Write a sequence for this structure.
């Protein structure tokens, strides 16, 4: 006799990441999984892998690495307080995130003050500083 298959709820990992508000769009979630920035139980997976309650996730976003445990499944993206109930962040991950936020609060990022290309006026000023004035001797 063949044992019946588990008929519990099935949900793709990329859809769960989107519903849990860890990524802004499902496409971004799928790209992160494809690029190996999301690991499930320590392994690289594909976006179609089923999410299961109890799975451990490691999510790399930029320079920050977060660790979560799936506590519930949801295919709908709801408000942030509801989304937070879908997972539990590890204490170590929470400490790293808070420490990083503290560092960012007290240290100014030099690159943030740069606002794109210089204006014409700023360009002229830069060129005048870099090149010596031409003399008419």
């Amino acid at each position: 006799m063949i044992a019946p298959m588990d008929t519990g709820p099935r949900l793709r990992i990329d859809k769960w990441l989107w519903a849990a508000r860890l990524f802004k769009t499902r496409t971004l979630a799928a790209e992160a999984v494809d690029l190996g920035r999301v690991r499930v139980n320590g392994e690289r997976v594909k976006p179609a892998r089923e999410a299961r309650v109890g799975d451990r996730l490691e999510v790399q976003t930029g320079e920050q690495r977060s660790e979560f445990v799936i506590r519930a499944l949801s295919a709908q993206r709801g408000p942030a307080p509801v989304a937070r109930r879908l997972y539990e962040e590890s204490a170590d991950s929470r400490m790293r995130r808070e420490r990083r936020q503290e560092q960012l609060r007290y240290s100014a990022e030099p690159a943030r003050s740069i606002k794109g290309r210089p204006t014409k006026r700023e360009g002229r000023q830069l060129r005048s500083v870099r090149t010596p004035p031409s003399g008419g001797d």
Notes: Confidence is low (pLDDT under 50) at residues 1-5. The domain at 13-106 is CATH 3.10.290.10 (Structural Genomics Hypothetical 15.5 Kd Protein In mrcA-pckA Intergenic Region; Chain A). Residues 68 and 75 are 18 Å apart (CA to CA).
